[in-house]
Amino acid sequence: MTPRQDIDIRPIHEDETRDWIRALNTGFQFPPTVSDADVRDRTTYIIPERTLGAFDGTRCVGTFRSFPQEVTAVGGTPVRADAISNVTVTSTHRRRGILTRMMAKDLAAAKERGDTVATLIAAEYPIYGRYGFGVATTTAEWTIDVPRAGLDPRWSGPDDGGRIDLVDGDDVRKTGPELHERLRRAQPGVVDRDERWWQVRTGALVVDPASWTEPFHAVYRNAEGEAEGLLTYTVDDHWGDVKQPLETAKVKDMIAVTPAAERALWQYVCSVDWVTKVRTGWRAPDDLLPHLLPDPRAARILTQADLLWVRVLDVVAALEARTYGATGTLVLEVVDRGGLSGGRYRLDASEAGASCARTTADAELTLDVSELGSLWLGDESAVRLAALGRVREERAGAASLADALLRTSRRPWCPDIF
Ligand SMILES: CC(C)(COP(=O)(O)OP(=O)(O)OC[C@H]1O[C@@H](n2cnc3c(N)ncnc32)[C@H](O)[C@@H]1OP(=O)(O)O)[C@@H](O)C(=O)NCCC(=O)NCCS
């Protein structure tokens, strides 16, 4: 790798937005020409001082953007995150250290600001571990062979006193944010959604009309009429040669804040006439779905992969923000090549919360900050990481204790990419 110090890395000026988007499109292999609508739209939400460009002379050859986010810790507390997105380096300038420089600049600013963690969704697995990020949540997508699932073909709605109604985008913009707030107070790994998120998903804001298909939105209400779930889906128009419907329903989003809502909405989408296949979209890895079907084998895994990556910037704040599965004390030696969060920390944890402070006591578990990112939301196992040689027990049994404290009975999940 030849570092290119002649490349200027700095926040963009507003009049450089179009060139920055051109570089972004180029990095993601989209046609590079930028529409006026795209420039207008991005200007409404990008934060110029947190939108970095890498400039070779006047030409933008690298892009990197961050924005404030909240990610829900175990126990339901939202934690301040530096959300990273739009990371590209143009192929003519790759592997000269440009990403490394953009990342260092952004993470240093996030640390200075007092953000607890940084978050991102990785296009490719090998990129971000070197910067201290670890896989904190995973996702799964299933395809359901509806005729094989064994559901009752006479099903006509929930049998628990609740009901399902199709609603339009205006209704979703009222109901959706409230439901999502309930979800994120309960589900570790969920990130906040802003108003624009709902506008884009409901067609109130369409930047590229060619790529917009209006979806259906189904709301589940309980017997008291209270909304507990929202399912957004599209259906293709596919028939076989012998007058045979073979349509696929694609789930774009599903929020369920009670198991009743989750059961009813899955049953609903699998019962729409003409639909013979359901693609679930990216769901929690332990979604109830397969086991809601009389024949769970009708749900075939299409994707099972990492989703949210977390980089701990403030170990004390991150560990104090969450609750724990047991009461116990653990001394962690955190190794951080990035120089942001390393050190020895004593965690005094309990079901109600924790206190954490720097210590000089002997370390019980030594781990890289990226492994701490993987353990933080409770999904990964310290025992497994020890077996992989990725954490080191300095005291026998420390990894088991870490699992007893940190792991959760249901898995963390991030429904969104950003
Ligand atoms: C991924 C990308 C941003 C990397 O930018 P870059 O400027 O080439 O990265 P750097 O030169 O700073 O690389 C730093 C290190 O990461 C490694 N690296 C970078 N991208 C990698 C990749 N995709 N796979 C494996 N290793 C990678 C480099 O080899 C280098 O390793 P070294 O320190 O051991 O020499 C760039 O290749 C790109 O834009 N790819 C297409 C778009 C994309 O995937 N963006 C990420 C969206 S989440």
Automatic annotation (TrEMBL):
InterPro entries: Acetyltransf_17 (IPR041380), Acetyltransferase_Eis (IPR051554), Acyl_CoA_acyltransferase (IPR016181), Eis_dom (IPR025559), GNAT_dom (IPR000182), NAcTrfase_Eis (IPR022902), SCP2_sterol-bd_dom_sf (IPR036527). It holds the Pfam family Acetyltransf_17. It comes from the Bacteria. One of its GO terms (biological process) is aminoglycoside antibiotic catabolic process. Keywords: Acyltransferase, Transferase. Residues 7-158 form the N-acetyltransferase domain. PANTHER family: N-ACETYLTRANSFERASE EIS (PTHR37817). Homohexamer; trimer of dimers. This is GNAT family N-acetyltransferase.
